[in-house]
Every structure is written in C-alpha cells, then in structure tokens.
Design a protein that fits this description.
Chain lengths: ~350, ~375
C-alpha cells in the first residue's frame, strides 16, 4: 500500500524547477503556480475570491488609469529588480496626475525555461513593494511563451487611482513664469542598469532609485493643490520629460546646469560612458512645474519628505512658441536640451 | 568631479573669453578649423561660440569617424552581417548611418542580421570565443585612437588561434585628411574657404604625437594648436591660434601637454605598424578617394582580414543629391546651408552621415544650437 495520500499534489519545485509550457496552458499546472506563488505572495480578499476579474469599490471622484510594461534587462540590478520596478513604475504613473493609487492589475509573460527560483524572487519583491506602497494587486494573468520568444519575464501592470478634488495636474498646464522643481538626483537608475549591462564596475556601486512616489506627491499637493504639471522622468530622462511638457504646453524652458542635482558617481560614470545624465532614466524621481509664488512652499514640503530630501529648483518656464528646452551651462554658454534620439550611445573616439 | 570640473570652469572661461576678445584685431577675421568631432561636440555642448568675438569663426572639420565612412563601406558591413552564421560586432555609432536602398545596420538588424553593439574591440573577440560555431566580424572604424585596440585583438586572435574571428578594417589617418583639405582647390586657389589655422586632434595626438603636424605648419603656413576635448582646452587653443596669427607665426603648439608628447605613444605606434600597412587609396565621404589615407591588415595577419576572407568588393555609391555632408566635411558649407538640414534630415531620420554621430557637425548643431536667435521672454505669472 502506498503511503501517499490520494489527494497529494507534489509542490512546485521553486528550487530547481523551470517554467514550462504547461504553466501557461490554463490547466492544473497553471492553477498550481497561481496558488503556490502568486496567491501566496500577493494574498488579498480579491485574489482569494479566485474570479477572472476583481470587483472593487472605487471612491467617488475622477478616476485615473495607467498601464506600463516592464521589460528591463538585466532582471536584477543594484537597488531593485523587475518585480518592484513593475509596482513602482505604475504607481508613479498614477500618482503623477496627483491621484491616490488604489489598485493594481498585473500580467506576466514568462519564457519557457525561466528558473522558478528567479520568478519567486521577482514575485516576492513585487509583493513587498505593493504592500509597502499600500496598493494591492487585485487581478492578474500569466502566459508562457516558447524559449527564445521572450527575455525571461515581461511584466505589465495597470494601476487605478482617484484624483482629489481641487487638483488639476496635466502636461499642458505649464505657463511662462512657472518654476521647474526636481525631487532629487538624476540618472541613478539608468547608470545602475547600464553599468551592469556593459559589465562595468566602479569603485562604488550605483544603486537604482526605484521607489513609489505617491506619498511624496500627497505631501506636495497637501501643501500646494495648484501644482501645474508633474511627471516621473523615466525613459529618456529629465530632458525628454521637459521636452514633452514644453510641447504639450506650447512654451519653452530654461534650466540651469549648476542647479541640476547629479551624484558625483553618476556624473563620473556618464563621463566614462559618454552619456548625458539629463537623458538617463530615473525610477524614483519626479519633476514638478509650479506657479513661482508657490515654489518655496512646494520645495519645503518636498524636502521634509525622505524621498524629496535633495529636491531643487532647476529652472523656469518661458515664452517660446518653438517649445525649445535650453540650458544655461555652468561654463557660461547656452545650449539646446533636445529630445533623445535613438538610444544614448557611447563615444568611440 | 576632480580632473573634469577644472576644465569646465565658467569663471576661467570668461577670463579666457576676455583675453581672446582683447587680442583679436578688429581689422581681420580668424577662420579656425577644429578637425575633430570631439571638439565640434564640445563647442556646441558648452556654447563656446557664445563666448567668442564675431570675427572668430569656427569651421567644423572631417574628424568624425562615422561621418567620413562612405555609403559603400556601410553596404559592405551589411553584406557581411547578412552572411549566414555571422555575427557583426560594431561600435554603436555606426548603427544608424544610412546605406544604399534605404538600409542601415539598424534596419539590417531588424531584418534578422545578428549585429551586436560593443564598447571595445576586446568585446568583439570575446563574442568570437563564446560562439566558436559562428563567424564573428568586427567592424573596425576610427582614426588613430581606435587603431591600436584593433591591432591588439588581431594579435590576440592570432596568438590564441581564434579561427572564427576577423576584422573589417576601416581605420583612417588624420594627417592624410588634413593634407587633403589643404590641397583642395577651394582652399588653395579659389580662396572660397579661408582657413587660417587648425585646432589639432586630442586623442589622436596622444597616439601619433605632435610631430606629424609640423609638416602642415611649415609647408602650408598654417598654425596648429593641439588641444584637449574639454571646453577650456578649446578656448585656450583658440587664444593660442589668435596669438600665432597676430604674430604671423605658423607653428605647432601643444595645449594638451597633460597627454600629448611630440613622439606620441611609441608602443602603440609599433603595434599598429606590426599589424597594419597603408592602403593605396580609400574613399572618404566628402573628400572622395584619398591616396594612402587608410590602413589595411598586413599579409602576416591576412587570415583575420574580413575583406579577403569573404571576398568583399568595394563599390562606391553616390551620396543623396540634396545632402551637403561632403561640402560640410570639407568646411565649405555650414549645416544651415543644407536644404534638408532640420527638415528631411534630422537625427531620427538622417539622410547624411553628419546627422548621425553626436560628433557630426549637423547633429551637434541640430541638438545643441538650433534654438539660437530665438529670444527668451520670461513670463510674469
């Protein structure tokens, strides 16, 4: 007689196992992966209900939806991984409208052969980030693609939030005379990723700044509800974000190089790689455009929050129908800060 | 940042600007060519033009390795990349250079060619060793600065017996290009391009030294000041050129003494001489065929020469008719003289090579300088 119970199911091997096609087939293996990994990690009342959709109660007000796909390589980097990034990225996109993020939905595209141990690590980092942010993952989906057709893991997250009354933050609201504020040092995330990708090691490790910014945003709008624009300068960096806002608002901008905060290590790495920190990605910083009369109050509110300690006023919005973003260089000249072209490339000569 | 900030100091820049303004003569103009794309980039990025008197004009030279590559060589690189079982390893700058038939390496990659971007020649050799079943070709480009690293990997490949590695050599020589510009009819006879002096290369000169420029100074009576790539280096070099011109001198002076000697890097030069020899002629974009202006791999290392290994034949292809890259590279025209500049030709969709590399004259002006003459009005909200 076998000692094994009739209802025994061998647990998923999170030590040596790998993702295979059955994990995405919708059958028993999929259900088991959902149960033993995703449900356990994200555990909440909506997931426990095990429906195809989550029924949520939204407070009254203007709802904000944002979605973002995360395809970062490498998946693990100093300061974070694709899991927490997938939470922070979308929470921040929702928060940049001034909204309070409430719920997340998540989709995983897994590549056949991907180590389950790595997947577990990613999911638990994602769950921690979601819990710390106070924004639960209420529904999700998992698909598996054949080997060679993905890059380990892609994660898409969608976030929902509500904008408080009296707040109207949008990319087309920058006005000449407004002041440009950033919440901290620029380029940390991009340099952390790039130095790993290119196998570059420096004396000190540069860590990604990936973090959820909604509490900082809440502190800012509590002080000054009339903030005009807010955005997180992710891909393309500060330069791209300012160009986007300038175009949407139909005005120009002038920033001062000496006021733009950049860590010395990031500056050095950029120098070495032939990059411009203004174009390097951030995952835990925001840029706000505020009426000049409120600038000092916004700045004080930011500096009082741990995520805005290094906040700085870096420039002004000006009249310019061409929508140029310019920079007064520390050197004493003036130059354009243009849209990013292609990917930032290293110098060769 | 130590050793960097000192060379970007705004206060010193204003002192130098004042010195230049104090020494230029109002009755003459100063046409100075910065040969290197690195200088072009620094001039645009730091807004150096804003600090110069109106009668000092900077002319951008052809010293941008990506810009001078003719279409035919990019076609060859695509041909190599599209061979079965081949990996083409390339510096990232070449990816977007337009080739024939609307192609580029980037587009060839999207069509399925295995093209990998590398930071150094050593990365290319590493890829070859990691993929012994594939042919790995390194697309070697650049002036004397990038030539020694290519020589190193060819020698290493030979020592290690890496049979699946080869180099598509496109290394070109700075002195040959300068001579070609000075010999061009526009400069020599017609006088359409006044060229009073040169800012000499920074990194190139660390390898070849300052001695090769002595010939130009003497033979063509043009002063040369070798300068580093930092903005204060460029300002100091301009001041030194203005002084030479005012004194009627035509000498080689070295502003970049912290890195350049008269002899250059003897070890690197010996290595290059061991692996490479002069090519009889090489086509440059803008300059056309220039005799003895490029290198090829020596007989001893022929096994690592992709051109002979895969029977690559060169076919010259004319530039787009509207494109003025040729004239811009010779200093005859400025980017804004080109009809397609900033309209059809932008960094996103470059027609000519000068719009591709950040060191190209067109890309530098488009990226950093095209706002000029737009007045700034601060609002009163």
């Amino acid at each position: 007689m076998s000692a094994v119970r009739a209802d025994y199911v061998r647990p998923v091997d999170f030590k040596h196992g790998r993702v295979d096609m059955t994990h995405g087939s919708g059958g028993r293996a999929t259900a088991q992966l959902v149960d033993e990994l995703f449900l356990r990690a994200f555990d909440n009342e909506w997931l426990r209900a095990q429906n195809d959709s989550a029924r949520i109660v939204m407070p009254a007000g203007r709802m904000v939806i944002a979605t973002d796909s995360h395809v970062v390589s490498p998946l693990f980097f100093p300061g974070g991984d694709i899991g927490c990034l997938a939470v922070h990225g979308t929470v921040n996109d929702v928060a940049m409208s001034g909204a309070r993020p409430l719920y997340l939905a998540a989709t995983f595209v897994l590549e056949e052969g991907f180590p389950l141990a790595d997947l577990k690590r990613i999911v638990s980092s994602m769950a921690t980030a979601s819990r710390l942010a106070g924004v639960p993952v209420v529904t999700g989906d998992t698909k598996v693609v054949e080997q060679g057709k993905g890059d380990g893991v892609f994660i898409t997250t969608t976030g929902f939030g509500i904008v408080p009354d009296g707040v109207d933050i949008a990319g087309d609201r920058a006005r000449p005379g407004d002041v440009i504020v950033v919440s901290g040092t620029l380029g940390d995330h991009g340099v952390a990723i790039m130095s790993l990708r290119e196998n570059l090691t420096f004396e000190t490790t540069i860590e990604s700044d990936t973090v959820a910014l909604h509490e900082l945003v809440a502190a800012m709008i509590a002080e000054v509800p009339g903030i005009h624009c807010m955005r997180d300068p992710t891909r393309g960096g500060l330069a791209t974000t300012l160009n986007e806002i300038a175009r949407q608002s139909g005005c120009g901008m002038v920033i001062r190089e000496r006021d733009v905060p950049v860590k010395a290590q990031v500056k050095a790495a950029c120098e070495f790689l032939g990059l411009d920190p203004l174009y390097v990605a951030n995952e835990g910083k925001l840029v706000a455009i505020v009426p000049s009369a409120t600038a000092s109050r916004v700045l004080a509110a930011m500096r009082a929050h741990p995520l805005g300690r290094d906040a700085a006023i870096i420039g002004d919005v000006v009249e310019d129908a061409h929508g140029f973003v310019q920079m007064e260089t520390s050197f004493g000249g003036r130059r354009n800060v243009d849209w990013l072209t292609g990917e930032q490339l290293p110098r060769i000569c | 940042m130590k050793y960097i900030d000192e060379f970007r100091d705004g206060v010193v820049a204003r002192q130098l600007a004042a010195a230049i303004a104090g020494e230029v003569r109002s009755d003459r103009r100063y046409h100075l060519m910065e040969f290197c794309g690195g200088h072009t980039h620094a001039i645009s990025r730091y807004g150096i033009k804003d600090l110069l008197p109106v009668n000092v004009r900077m002319i951008h030279g052809p010293g941008c390795p990506v810009c001078v590559l003719p279409i035919g060589r990019i076609d060859n690189a695509i041909e190599l990349a599209e061979r079965p079982w081949t990996i083409l390893a390339t510096y990232a700058d070449t990816m977007r250079v337009p080739a024939s038939k609307g192609l580029s390496l980037q587009k060839a990659k999207a069509r399925g060619a295995d093209i990998r971007m590398v930071y150094s020649s050593a990365d290319a050799l590493r890829i070859a060793r990691e993929n012994p079943e594939r042919e790995v070709v390194f697309f070697a480009i650049g002036f004397e600065t990038t030539t020694p690293p290519t020589a190193v990997v060819i020698r290493q490949a030979a020592e290690l017996g890496v049979a699946n590695f080869s180099v598509f050599c496109n290394h070109v020589l700075t002195p040959a290009a300068i001579a070609n510009i000075l010999e061009s009819p526009e400069v020599r006879e017609l006088g359409t391009v006044p060229l009073d002096g040169f800012i000499g290369p920074a990194h190139v000169s660390t390898v070849i030294g300052s001695q090769p420029y002595e010939y130009f100074a003497e033979e063509y009576e043009r002063p040369v000041v070798i300068a580093g790539f930092e903005p204060l280096d460029v300002m100091q070099a301009i001041l030194m050129l203005v002084r030479q011109l005012n004194d009627g001198r035509a000498e080689v002076e070295n502003e970049f003494t912290r890195a350049v000697t008269r002899e250059g890097n003897i070890k690197a030069k010996a290595l290059v001489a061991e692996v490479f020899e002069l090519r009889r002629s090489f086509e440059w974009r803008g300059l056309g065929e220039v005799p003895y202006s490029a290198l090829q791999i020596k007989e001893k290392y022929r096994a690592y020469d992709a051109e002979t290994r895969f029977g690559i034949g060169y076919r010259s292809v004319a530039d787009n008719k509207a494109c003025e890259c040729g004239a811009i590279l010779r200093g005859v025209k400025q980017p804004t003289d080109c009809k397609v500049f900033g309209t059809v030709c932008t960094p996103e969709n470059p027609i000519g090579s000068c719009m591709v590399s950040s060191e190209g004259a067109c890309a530098a002006h488009y990226t950093y300088g095209r706002f000029k003459n737009v007045p700034i009005v601060k609002g009163s909200a």
